[in-house]
Structure formats: C-alpha cells, structure tokens
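Components:
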Amino acid sequence: MKRWLPHLLLAIGILIAVAALRPPKNTDEFHRTEFGKLPVLVGGRVKPMDTLARTSLLAISGKQIVRNGKETTLALNWLMDTLMRPERSDQLPVFSITNPDVRDLFGWRDDAKKMFSFADLKSNLGKIEEQSALASKMEAAQRTPYQREILKLRERLLLYLRLKNAIQMEDSPDFGRELADFKNILAPGLAAMDAEKAGTPLTDDQRVAFAKLLDFAQRHQRLAQAAYVSAIPRTPGDATAHDWQHIGEALISVIQGGEIAPAVQNYASLISAYRAEKPAEFNTILAKQTALISHDYAAATRKIGFETFFNQVQPFYLAMELYVLIFILAFVSWLVWPEEIGRGAYWLLWLTFAIHTFGLIARMWLQGRPPVTNLYSSAIFVGWGAVLLCLILEKINRNAIASVVAAAMGFVTLLIAHHLSVDGDTMEMLRAVLDTNIWLATHVVVVTLGYSATFLAGFLATVFILRGVFTRSLDRPMLKSGATMVYGIVCFATLFSFVGTILGGIWADQSWGRFWGWDPKENGALLIVIWNALILHARWGGLIRERGLMVLAVAGNIVTSFSWFGVNMLGVGLHSYGFMDAAYKWLIGYDISQLILIAIALVPLKYWRSFSKKTAPALVAV
Amino acid sequence: MVRKILLPFTSLKLTIVCFAFAMLLVFFGTIEQVHLGIYGAQKKYFDSFFVFWTIPGTIRHIPVLPGGYLLGGVTLLNLLAAQAVRFKFSWKKSGIYFLHLGVILLLLGQLFTSLFAKEAQMRLDEGQTKNYSESFTEKELVLTDTSDSKSDHVVSIPEGLLTSRAPITHPSLPFRVEVSQYFRNSTAVAKDQVSSPNIPRLEVGPMAVLVPIALATTSEQPNMPSAEVKIITPEQTQTFILSERLRSPKTFTVDGKTWHIDLRARRFYKPFSIKLNDFTHKIYAGTDIPKDFSSRVSISDPATGEKRDALIYMNHPLRYEGNTYYQLAFDNNDTTSILQVVRNPSWLLPYIACTLVGLGLLVQFSIHLVNFSRKRRTA
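Structure:
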C-alpha cells in the first residue's frame, strides 16, 4: 500500500484537473454557453461575451458569481440579464458598499447588509453624482477614503449602465419592435429629410416621419457616445479591431445610407426571444448569429473559442488548489513517510507546474505577447519561475524543502495575481511606450526571473530559520546544504537581475537615448542587484556564514517587494491612490513580518531548538 | 610602495560598506522623487559628493550620506585597487575579471554621462521648423542686436549670473545690465489677490502682478522665471519686466541700434534644422489607451547637403549627428509634438560594459555549476 501512495496522490491530482476540464452545462434551456462565445470588442480587444461577463462582474462586485440569499447567478447569466433584461439584473445585489460614511449618505442603518442592487441605489444616483463631482475636484492623493469610495462606486455604476446600454437602449420596451418601426419610417423619414433640405414644404405624414426619425437618431446617438462594448462587426471580411462598432453607431450609419446589418437584426431578435422566454427561438437565432460572425469574421474571432475554454478551466485557480494540497503533503512528509509522501508531492508539483505553464502559454497566445505585460502577469510569472527553480532544487536534493517552498510561493503569487485582477481585463492592451515584443521578451522576462530567484532565496532561508529555531529537525549538515542551496539561488538571482537590469538600460538607450535615468522602477531593479552582490561579497569575504546568508536572503525579500510593488506606489500614488491603498498596507505588513523573521534568526544559536545543548545529545543518539 | 598605499582600498569590507551605502542612497534617492521630482532627486543624491540634510527649524545643512560621485568614486577605487593588487590570471576566475572590468566601465560610463550628456527638448508645431533645442531646466537672458539684416548678434546670460544680481557687462554690449529682481519660478495673479505686503512682486499691466512661487519639481511644469532688468547707459536707465510665463520679449534702442531682450529657456543651436510635418496619436479602438505616437519630420542640413524625411515613434528615435530625438509628449490637440533631444558622447560605454558583465557572470556561474555537480557526482 505504502509503495503505491505516490501514484495514488498523483491520480487524485489528475482527477481534480480533469474535473476542471468538464464543459459547463447550461442552467436552463437557453444556450447560454454558446452566447458566451459571441465576440465583442471591449477595451481594444476582441473577446468573448464570457470574458466580458467575468471581468465586468469582478470589477463591479469583486466576485465571479452573484449571491442573492441562497440563490447564485453565474457571471454569464448576470451579463445576459444586464444586456437583455436589465429590470431583472437591477434586482441583483452586486455593489458592495461597506464604507460607513457612504452608507450614512444614503441613510442606511442596517449594518448586516453589504451587497446592494442597482434598484437599492437608484434613488441615490443624484447624491452619488453630486458627491463624486466634489471629490473629483480634489487631487487624487489628497482624497479621503470616503471620497475615494464614492468615486469608485460611481465608476462601477457607470460600467453597469454602459453594459445595460451595450446592445439595446436599456429603456427600450421591445428592441425588436423598435427596430421594425425604424425600418418602416426610414424611407419616408429620409424622403422628408431630402424634401426639407430642398426647401419643399412637408406633408403632415412626412413631418411625423421626420420627427420620429430624428428622435430615433438622437436616442441612438447618445447610446453610441456612451459606447463601451462594440458588438457589431462593420463590414464582412474586415478583421481589424477598428472595424467593430457599437450598435448605436451601426444604426446611425443606416440613416446616413445603407441597410440594417444582419448582426444588429439578430441581436434585436435575440433580445425579443430572451425576454419572451422562448428558448427554442433564441437558440435558433443564436446559432444564426454565431455562424454569421464566425464565417464573415473568422480571423478576428479565431481565438474566441479557446479563450472561453481558458476562462472556464481557470488554470490559475486550479493550480492554487493543487499548491495548497502539495504544501500540506510536503510538510507532512517532513514528519511521516518522507520517502513516499515526499515523492507524491514532487510528482504533484510537476503536474501543477504543467497547469501553471499551460495558463501562462495560453495567455501569451491569446494576447500575442511575451509572458509579462503588467503587474498581474508579473505575479503569475514570478511564481512560475520560482516553482521551476524549486523543481530543479528538489531534483538535486530530495528532502521536500523545495517542494514546500514551491507550493507556498506558487500559491502566494497566484493569490496576489488574483487580487490584482479585480480591476478588469488582465489582458489589457499595452500602452504605446510598452508596445515592443523584443524588449518585453528579453528585459522584462529576465528581470522578473531575477525577482523570482531573489524571493526564492528568501523563502528557502525562511524554511531553514523556522525549522532551526522552532523544531529539532535541523542539523549542521542540513544547515550547510541549505546554505549551499540559498547561495546557488542568490548567484542565479544576481545573474538574472543584473543582466535584466542592463537589458533595461539598453532598451532605454535604444528608445530614449539614455542608458540610465534614475527612474523609480530602474532604481528598484538596481537595489536588487546591489543587494545580491552584497550577499555574495559578504560570503566570499568570510563576513557571513550559513546563518548570516539566510538572514541577508530574508532581507532580500524586503528589497524585492519594494522593487516589485513599492516603487509602483510611489509613481502610481500620484494618480490612483485608491487601489494601491490596500496594497500598501499589505506591503508594510509583509516587510514587518520579514523583519520579525530576521530578529528571530538573530537569536543566538544556542537558543535554537535544533542546536540547544539539551537536544544535542539526542541528535547524536539519533 | 604603491602596493602599500593601495592595500587598504582592496578590502572586501570596504566593498560591502559601499554596497550598503549604495542601497541607502538609491532607496532614499527614489523615495525623495515624490517631493523633488526625478531631476531634483538626481541632483541631490546621485550627481553630488554628499547628501545634505537640513536640521528642521534651522538653516544648518549637515552631510548625512555620501553622494553618488563620492560613493561611485570610492567603489571605483576599491575595484581598481583590488584588480591591480590581486590580479593573477587564472581560468578559474576569468569570469570575475571580465565582470569587474565591466562594472568599472559602467561606473565610468555613468560618470561621463552625468558630466557630458545633455538633455533638452524640442517643441514643434505642425509645419514649424527649428534649428535649436531648449533646456528643460536652464534659463537664459538674451540680448539680441538686430541691426545687421543678415545675422543676429546674440549675447546670452546664464541664470547663475541673474540670481547673483551683480551688474553685468560684456564687450559686445554698449550698456550695463542690472537685474534688480529675479524670481526663479513665478506666476501671474490678479493684483488684489496678493494679500501680504511682504510678498515681492512685479507689476505687469494695471490688474496683474507676477509673484514668486515654489520651485518646480517635474519637467511637465518647469520653472517660469520673471525678472526686472535695467539697461543702463550713462545717459539713461530703462527698466523692463520680463517673464517666460508671459512670453514677453521687449525691444529698446541704444545708440540708434535696436535690441531685443528676452528671458527664456536656454537654447542649444544646431547646424541643421528639423521640421515637423505631421504628428499622429493613435488609440486602441473603443478606448482612450494610447496605441502609438509618431512624428513625421524633415531634417535639412546645409553643411552636408542632407535633406530627408524621418519618422519618430515610440521605441524608435531618430539619431542624427550625435543627437537622439525621441517622442516625449504632445500638446495643442495633437498638433504640437514635443521631442526629447539627448546628446550623450559616452553612449557606447554601457554596451561594452554590459557585454563584459553578462559574459563574466555567465562564465563564472557556469564554472561554479560544473564544479558543484562534479563534487556531487564524486560524493
């Protein structure tokens, strides 16, 4: 039995992974998953409705699912209601409001309720508008938490309103009927317009038609201005992002000459069928719409299916779950059955690494970019690099130490990534200055691997310090081999952070004509290089031994956390304090924890449980 | 003998002390950018010998940290001494030598850059041609003799002389210049808005005055100096109020010659000119995220007869005659392009240094790795 334990553990891991691959079932007779695959242009990128649903709900409510009492609503179902039956989604509690001052403003007393629906907020829209106008006059850095909260709430409301008006006017009683009416008045209306231009007097009928047409145009002009989602491809065959338009624009262009695009007509019919609870009709039109778009706009939509699959598998969440499992297993293996459980954890780590890698490569392919393009993807990549290095270490030294560290780092970095993802689409378009694949692939990747390695050295050191101080499981040879491990990783970190920083300098010289500009992000990278160099020189000079190396490596965590997040808070701090506020507290908390760890490590060796005199004979006896 | 003097400088402990100070310097030099801006922090921390700290409530400055020059210098000495005294070539340590040689070049490169590199900007409206760039920070008072119809005769007085308020004379100037008031940064306000009578001011027009304000910290909002300047000849004294913010050049006559006087950003003239034909600003569809900025320019160089078009866009600067022009910013509804102009004669050093350092690190760590795995195999 014991012999088969590793196989059993791996099998469990594979089962968990396979379970995530199961295609989702529709919650009712509407072909919702198919609707989720319809492409839309949002934020400069063509993406499936499914992604729009997840990122919008995350941005509005901070969650991927809506909970209303015992009832839960999937992101996609919520979006479908918002787009097509807003009176239903208006009732769903998706806005979280916890700031007491904001609650006071609305006169709410019930402290237990945290999530509110649009219907709850409706009577307060005027107040929100008025208060955020006042708040936005303040410099971003000087805003109070209340003001930041109000502005955030307004932004979330705005997003919700834009979604409600994405493929129809939210107050349209029946978009299909409205479109039919529009078709009827179009010809007489246009004729009236021509007559008006020519100066001929209008008949009463013409006057009515003209007024109706104008009214329609004005309504949809407003709609087009608020456009956030562009769901209508402009002309068949054109695949570039610029050729998508908002439904309002598409209708206005009809007035300027042309016909109602079939895609617009299909959306109108979809809305009618959805509202009338006619799934069969809905599914037929949906199939038509899918066929139309995927046939005419094949190039723009070829990644849509894969992205929906990627969303549904959620490889990073899956990896997080498995990292927790590995952490527990590897930790247990220090106490019992080190050989069997340790091997099981090691195999599982490979499996999880494969899933992590799949997620990374999937994102690269979807975006057509190197792995690191923003803070979110840097977190994913830092974890990936650290796990990769740990796998190598574990292969050399099979003692489950690197497995524990890998699982911890994989989990923590993916958790950080998750918290960075609530702002919206993590595959956002790159600002002009970053729009270069060569340097993103070299400088950014190398320097981020430098972060990985520096953190890894610090985490490894943490394990040895904690084991040495609080358990009796550490002995001299183990400490020595641990120090060799940390030293090796610090060497690696020096190489990557140095080369990465220098590549950054070359990028700067190539692009801006100067090698070094003392910019905060550059300085952050320089700090890591100097710190790693300091560790190496201190060791070569004999100034530090095993314990000193561990202590300095832990201090490296503080340096790296500053370079990774701290400098962004300096620069970004002037623009968007709100988001970084919470992160700032976490950063300070983390740095304090590392200082405490250093203090613990500096306790004289004779008080370490592993080396105290009382236990020494026991060790010898073992 | 030389060995004996150098020996204390070869210490590894000194290296570590240098590193530790460098950590502090870079850290505080980064944090302070929030208040001082990149340029201010760079001057205070990196292009200096000591970093001074003002004791709160006093005007006493005390040095608290070695500045970039001092620290870089000591590190350089440390490195050179160690290389000179300990140098004994062996393949086992070849990586280390390359690496440190690279670091020496990097430090030297940074020193040369901070001494010789010039950064300036060129602001061009569409259709405009210029043969000069302008400093971000330095100002000048210029006096132009326009009497010769073929060429102007320009005397430029740097800001340092203006702030000292000493009378200025120059062989080309048939008069004496006195700066009676000088505000390094100033703004125009309505007269009745200045409450305290102690605030110095310069009157411009019946309603407005210029008052001094705090020095600028960012290059987006540079200092806008104002000055009261007296032109003194034995016969008469003429007083002018000049301000870069109001862009108010004045003219006057001395001995029948007409002179222009202006206070402005310091100009660097080039023997060639650049014309902005078109500026474009692209955004991603349905967003306001910038996708690309680009300036189509024409260079025309009478000396070499070169006359051609060039496109400057993000991550793609124009290099011409030792100057690098890159897209910095834009203005006036996408009709004005602002180019940054960098002249750095030592630009090549970092490339050589990088190659050496990269190679050195790679060689050394490979040697380590091979040794390590060999030891493991035998163990």
